[in-house]
Amino acid sequence: MKIITTLLILITLFCAGNVGVFAAVRPQRVKSPAAPAPAPAPAATAAPAILSIIPAQAEPGSKVMMSGSGFGTLASAYLGSVEMPARVVDGKLAEFSIPPQLEPGLYALYLKRSDGAVSRSYNFAILPLRPVLNGLSPDTIDSCSQGAEREVIALGQNFIEKSQIVFDGAVLKSRYVSSEALTFGIPNVLGGLHHVVVRNSPENSTVALGLMIETKPEIVQVMIGSQYVNYYELAIVGRNFQQNSSIYVDGQKIGGGGEQDLAERDKLIYVDCTRLIYERHPYSQVDKDFRIMVMNPGGEASQIINVTAP
Which of 145, 150, 238, 288 is an S-S bond match for 219, by CB 3.0 to 4.6 Å? Predict the structure, then answer.
């Protein structure tokens, strides 16, 4: 009996030990890691929006500023199909230059971002280049000048091959030199101030500049010429002398037409607008000092020249 009891106790202890072993090595359930949550879809980027265009119309070569939003960092402006790189500031401002060769007309202006997004288009007028007349060289012409002396250069900007010179309202023949220069000849006109305009088209002209036709006589030189028995010639050389010009010798008028020429011994002969001949009949061959001045019919007088001669 004791033996049986002892065996039962041993069997019980053995089974209890094995159960602990089996429990220690039993595999555990492993939970798989949770799948990551899907990333939210990126929000759609708005197309560029133009709020203002300054100026609303411009000439080729001008700068244009557009303001708005969504311009990004890189963008180009378009006038029709012509692309122009734009300088973008803070995604809100874009500046570009109109190509100089762009023809006048109405264009669709829009902005295209580097990612391909395009703004709404707006009408933009390209104006014809307005000519600018800065000066005339020379701006004063003597009335008696001839040939090349009457050629004038109009200096400015934005001249074209079809530009015209308008002189006192009349179109003159001119020659295109460059976009900054035209040449033309001055017609024979009355003295005084005249107006010169450069016109690219009937609606596109410069501001007028003045050109002076100088008629005031000027003495450059007085010299003794041919000598005869009872008189000699004084050659008066200068500019802007006229057919009926007269001279004043120590205040006494000589020449200029009228009965005085027939009564006086001294004569004045008009050669051309640069030369007068004074026939002087001296009472003595001894040199004396006297003064000569040329007076034109309109009352314009030269400077007074001191002369020493018989």
Answer: 238
